[in-house]
Amino acid sequence: MEIEFIPLDYSAFDFNDENYVKIYGRSREGRRICLIDKIDAYFWAILQDGLSEKQIKHVMEKIEKIKVHSESRTTHVLKTELHEKKFLGQDVKAVKISITNYKDAPSVAGKIDFEEIVKRREHDLGTITHYIMSGKVIPLKWFKVSGDVLNKSGDFGGIDSAINADFVLKVGSIKESDKKSDELFSPKILAYDIEVDELEIGKGRILMISLYGGDFRKVLTWKKEGNDIDFVEHCKSEADMLEKFCDYIKTEDPDILTGYFSDNFDMSYIRERAKKLEVKLPIGLDSSQPRISGAKRQSAKIEGIVHLDIYKFVDVNYSQYLQSETLSLNEVAGELLSEKKLNFEFKHFSKLSKDEWNKFFHYNLQDSALTYKLAEKIWPDLMEFSRIMHKPLFDVSRDGMSTHVEDYILHNLYRFNEIAEKRPIHDEIGERRDREKYEGAFVLQPKPGLYENVVVFDFTSFWPSIIATFNLSRSTILEKKLKSCIIVDTGNKEFYFTPTKGFFPELLEEIIVKRKEYKEVFKKNPDPIVKARSNAFKLIANAAYGYQGFFGARYYCPQASASATAISRKFIKETLEKIKKSGREVIYIDTDSLIFVNQNKKTNKRYTAQETFHFLKELNSELPGIMELDLEDFYMRGLWVTTRSGEVGAKKKYALINENGKLKIRGFETVRRDWCKLARNLQNGVLRKILNEGNEINALQYTKEIIKKLKDRKIDSKDIIIKTQLKKPISGYKSKGPHVLAAEKMLKEGIPVDVGMLIEYYISEPKKDAKGKPNSRSKRIGNRVALIDDNKPYDISYYLNNQVLPAVENIFQVFGIETKDIIEGESQKRLF
DNA sequence: GGAGGTGACGTACC
DNA sequence: ACCGGTACGTCACCTCC
């Protein structure tokens, strides 16, 4: 039988103590297919230099005799082959050791402690990664597969009769489809969401489960309410509801089952309840139950169906581009879909009225609907990530950036004939984490002020372009200086790199080139797949620099990172001098961007756009390799302020307005979620007015109005709420700030508190003693925290002196105005 | 008991 | 445990006078 096939999910299994992979996917016709393929289990032993043929033969014979016994099986070496390979760019002779079971590769490797073997490698890969590295079946690409259909033949112990697929096929040959292998595939998605009466897993019951698959809409419940809602289906009991949930997954037959935070919450909750109620959850295509692994960061895997937790993917790949202050379903859907959750006020379910129950069902369904739509929205990115990084959807949706970078490298090593480096072992990780920090990028101290006619230049893909241009990597670093090598002076130490391109810099250069290419293609043809592809390359490129300094990296090389930052400082400073030399005044620099006044300081001549582009071209002609400077935008005005303590200009804090009146605010309290809305909105208004109008007059008036409102207690209660994240368990805090005390207060009132939660509170007036003086406990701000429902008056003095004034003071200082004097003057005037 | 320094902490920038 | 360093600012907590 021959079919066209797209792989979606992988899982490994053993038969007769050997390794096989089940690859679940669809045919062109939409049939559910499961392929079975043999995994070639092997790893490498790198030989000592200069061994004789006889010595090599002797070692290989020794290796062939190795056997490893465990309780359930014996693994032995099938064969050994001698290969000419590369390791970290060096030519090596290596023995390919094929074994019966890859799971025992580490144990077999452990027995090869002969002195002729200098290194053992590729025994520490995940089984599926090891399989995919063979390059045979790339996730989410189309393949032409031929092979034998297992038709209750008893092959593999009759595995096919246990798999819920249209065909189970034993792979004969497989190759990439000659038709467009990268075209869009639309998976069948089913979203789910649960509502419970107690948030803590294991404590409460599941009240309802919603399912949403486009046309398919369902809320399952064992409660009696909701009779007049068509999508509500009543179950006899909670156990019955869980069984129906499984039944619907079976009949809907989705490729992707998706939830929001479902790894840590929904699926874990369902599993706990199922355990307690003694219900089986046979939703896997082999009728297995969901498997939940990991402790703090759990993941729930379903055999054959991709369980997708959208929260994780959003966290890793979107959060830095989102405005949302939290990654709650409500905020993320609001920003990505312009659609929100339904309003629903949670109460104990025993207190819900008929009407409120009906709302609850709609609320529950809407959550699944939003999750479904988010899944559709992120699908192009998921698919392209999967294709580009050669990773199954399950992993691509859960892994962090460093793992993405590493997997991209691993899956491209074959092109360089490279054997993969090992993962660091425990002691190494400890050492790496204890290493001294290396010096980072350059940040220029700005001179506070309001500037006009401002331009921003920035380096495109700064870090990767430096790494690629100067060949900075683990496999290219030299122990000593050679006659012709790249010398990097970090100011502290010198590092040397070979000029022969290494695989890491080369891959990076390729990534940058591809990114540029697809960005151009997208400009001409705005196809979401092309955009997703360009985006995937951008993300890998940006993370590659951090990867080399990351303690867990296989290709860890802090010297390369330190060299990259040293080179970055050199070029940004050189560019600074060139801009200055052109007569322009540079206001600010951070890492890869330079902000300057686009006019000659002496002659006051304003440069035209054309002259600016010409200048840019000139600067670019002097840059090496693939380093490139780009024009980010022209701005009408820009504002820089001093730090709160001292006279110097504050770094990482500025506001710009471009020629279309669009603001770009960085670092100011306006963009910080741990400041109250009152201060943030005021500061935003002040900045907007100043940048628009070029002076502070209206901004000052506005500030006075807000302060009057504050003093008159006319501020909306939601604008005084301060939100701070609880980053660790309460007991882990040495110094308990207001948010920690607020969290303690919540616990006392029976409100559940979790690590990672945004704690919301406000500051109330101090308690006074008999004489009317604030008591000494009140000095600590934490002792005055109030929760939203506390209904205590807010502390005017705190909000004035600790929120409002700090947010605007140094802005007005730029214009020589001491806000405090003015405010006090005003209040004195009023007093008299 | 107020001033001032320092460490812990959270968040932002690139 | 799940990419790096740089930087600002608040609050708690301590020492000092």
List keywords for this structure.
832 residues; alpha+beta; six-stranded antiparallel sheet; 30 strands; globular; DNA-binding
Which sequence of strands runs across the widest sheet? 14-13-12-11-15-18
How many strand elements? 30
SS class: alpha+beta
Portion in strands: 15-25%
C-alpha Rg (nearest Å): 31 Å
Shape: globular
| Helical proportion, percent range | 25-40%
Mind summarizing the main beta sheet?
6 strands, mixed
Mean pLDDT: 93
Q: N-to-C terminal Cα separation, in Å?
A: 96 Å
Number of distinct helices: 21
> Regions with pLDDT < 50 over 5+ consecutive residues?
none
Q: What report would you give on this structure?
A:
With 832 residues, this protein is an alpha+beta fold. It has 21 helices and 30 strands. A 6-stranded mixed beta sheet has the order 14-13-12-11-15-18, sandwiched between helices. A 6-stranded antiparallel beta sheet has the order 23-24-19-25-26-27. Strands 1-2-3-10-9 form a 5-stranded mixed barrel. β23 (585-590) and β24 (593-597) form a beta hairpin. α8 crosses α14, α12 packs across α13 and α12 (462-470) packs across α15. The radius of gyration is 31 Å and the shape is globular. The model has no long low-confidence stretch (mean pLDDT 93). The protein binds a DNA duplex (14 and 17 nucleotides) through α10, α14, α15, β26 and α19.
